[in-house]
Each structure stands twice: as C-alpha cells, then as structure tokens.
Specification:
The chain is of the alpha/beta class. The protein is built from seven helices and six strands. It binds 3-methylbut-3-enyl trihydrogen diphosphate (2 copies) and magnesium ion. The site of one 3-methylbut-3-enyl trihydrogen diphosphate has 10 residues, from helix 1.
C-alpha cells in the first residue's frame, strides 16, 4: 500500500457552480469554502502531512475586477475568522506564490504564517498568485546567484516548495483535464485524479474514494 504524505488540489469549478445554483460566480467561491474546510479536516483525520491548494493563479488576474476583489475579500475574512482555529488544530500555513497584494492582505498572510510556523500536524501550502513557470524561472535565477551547480537537488532547494516532498496525489475538480500552470516540476510522478464534480460539490466521500484508489496503485517511478 502506498503511503500518502502530500495531496495537491486544483479547486476548480466554483464559478460554474455559482452560476448554476445561485446565478452568480461569486456565490460559487463562497460555497467553495465549505468544501475546503471539510477537506482540511479530513486531511488531518487521515494523518496526511501536506496539503497544497491552488487558490489563485498568476493568470487569474485576467478576471473581472469585481470577481478578483470578491475572492480576496473572502480570503481575508476566512483567514481572520479561522486562523485561530487552524492554529489550534496544529496546522502550519505557508503561502506559495508572490505576495504582492494590498499591504493589509500581505501583512495578514505574513502574520498567519508566523503564528502557525511551529505547528506540525499538517502543513497547508496555499498557492496564491502562484504560477509554476514564474517559480521555475525564479529558481534558475536563484541558482545562478548562489553559483551552485545545476542539478536536481540544488534546483529543488530554489523552488518555493523547497524542503516539501512532491505531491503523491493531484486532484483537479471541475471536469477539466489540465494543469493550468500548477507545480509543473513537482507533479512529475504524482498520481493524477481529474474529477467531474465542481469544487463546491466535492465531499469527503469523493476524497476518500481517491485516497483508497491511490493506495492500491502500483507506482513504478520508471522501474517495473
Ligand atoms: C476555481 O474556480 C477558483 C479560482 C480560480 C479562484 P473557478 O472560478 O475557476 O470556477 P470555474 O472553472 O469558472 O467554474
Ligand atoms: C486554476 O483554475 C486555478 C485555480 C483553481 C486557482 P482556472 O479556472 O483558473 O484554470 P483555467 O484558466 O480554466 O485553466
Ligand atoms: Mg476554472
């Protein structure tokens, strides 16, 4: 049976869910938070050590301003209301991506990271203004700056996911089969699950089905 250490999720389909059930994309984003909380709790229960969540990509800035503002307000409220709870659950929060938001949000993110820095039950990597191509280019730049030889080990240390093991599982909800600039290096050997359901409809049963399937997959890593 495979050991499950790290789950990465592209939480896709909020907008379509909102339009279908509430006539607004933003309502879908709000509804997505419920799935998020359920999945976080189940991840703790399952003793999984890392959960990486794609919340906002470098390409998502192309969206209407109204939607972007709504998303970041939602995030701000979520963190303000839930950080104590996350802290009590012994969760460490790490942001991957570039923190170039309003100074209020930047400070909030930094303070949440600091507050939870010593926690060790589960590490949540929240990908915010994250793009894998940008991350890779930056890693090359860092490597050149520190003048280290170019090899996998040194390169990995220059990624934003330095010291984090690669995801064992990638889940993408929302009935779309693409990576959308997410963890292109780190997903090299992950088991990928594309799920038809929209993110707000994704539940613990769906999650556990994936985990069960994952456990019995024969992972070769090139071997036979
Ligand atoms: C994913 O849901 C959440 C974010 C990108 C913030 P979408 O907003 O992409 O939802 P769809 O794919 O348009 O339904
Ligand atoms: C990927 O979803 C980003 C997040 C879930 C945050 P998108 O909905 O932005 O991806 P594309 O644009 O359909 O590929
Ligand atoms: Mg989408």
């Amino acid at each position: 049976m495979n050991h499950l250490n790290h789950v990465a999720i592209i939480m896709d389909g909020n907008g379509r869910w909102g339009l279908k059930y509430k006539k607004s994309r933003n309502e879908g984003h709000k509804a997505g938070l419920k799935s998020l909380e359920e999945i976080i709790n189940e991840t703790i229960k399952k003793n999984i050590k890392y959960l990486t969540l794609y919340a906002f990509s470098t390409e998502n800035w192309k969206r209407p301003k109204k939607e972007i503002n709504y998303l970041f307000n939602l995030l701000e409220n979520f963190l303000q209301n839930k950080i104590e709870d996350l802290n009590k659950k012994n969760i460490k929060l790490k942001i991957i991506g570039v923190k170039n938001f309003s100074s209020k949000l930047n400070n909030l993110l930094i303070s949440c990271e600091r507050k939870t820095n010593k926690n060790n039950k589960l590490q949540i990597n929240l990908a915010l203004n994250y793009g894998s191509k940008y991350e890779l280019i930056n890693a090359f730049k860092k490597l050149r700056k520190i003048n280290k030889s170019i090899n996998e080990k040194n390169f990995q240390k220059c990624l934003q996911t330095a010291n984090i093991p690669d995801p064992d599982i990638l889940i993408r909800t929302g009935n779309t089969q693409r990576l959308s600039n997410f963890l292109l290096w780190q997903l090299a050997y992950s088991e990928i699950f594309f799920i038809k359901k929209l993110w707000p409809d994704f539940n613990i049963r769906d999650y556990n089905n994936i985990i069960r399937k994952f456990k019995s997959i024969k992972r070769n890593f090139g071997n036979v």
